[in-house]
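tool_call: predict_structure(chain=1)
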Amino acid sequence: MTKAPARVDVRRGDLTDAGFVRDAVAGARTVFWVDPTPHTAPDPIGTSLETAAPLVEAARAGDVGRVALLSSIGAEKRHGVGHIDALAGIETELDATGTDVLHLRCAYFFTNLLLDLEGLSRGVLNTAFDPEHPMPWVDPRDVADVVAVRLLNDGWRGRTVQAVHGPEDLTFHQVARILTEALGRTVRLDQVGEDALRDTLRAAGLTAPAVEGIVGMSAGSSGLVPEQPRDLLTTTPTRLGGWAHAELRPLLEARPGTA
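tool_result:
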């Protein structure tokens, strides 16, 4: 958009406004849908499904040619993975419309590490995930590259699932070691139990559905093996160490009092 703004027809509005969404997507060859619902919403699953409803209606009515959905690993379970259950629901509803649909099931974003700069500045990597379970990690910019290729490709039809697994599967123990090297400081892992996470989220004022939506994403991912295997198509190039050195390290070094 910034490179060629004259070629972009920008529609500014509220994605929770059904009328705006229907008008904005009408006649589109392909709609790329990114759920805007924050995990901290009072009812994250319900809000995600309600927000996507106008898109589903437009697809069912034939008002859009194709839909590409930014989904997540774990959506294949359909239930039991917290807020990711909403993406599973959107997948199911889009599948039922009969339109051409692409589900992009993405790995754990590198940028999730940015949500705990305070902990990392103290040399602590906090997680509620099973620290022994390897899982795919991905740079969101690599996801963007995959999305761009797919949107420009007119060849896919029917229901397609494309996994975006990043370069390798990592345990959180491995992530701590990678960060130690990339950041030039010791990073130790601190596993947070489910009950402790619930207590922290409740103390922050989150509703019960929001709390369970967040806790469920880590609890429901324990032992998960993605439906799509790692292969040439699902593997992307950017490695966590390089990303952390280029993106995360400057942010931490700019924080006052960082150890």
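agent: The longest strand covers residues 66-72. Proceeding to next step.
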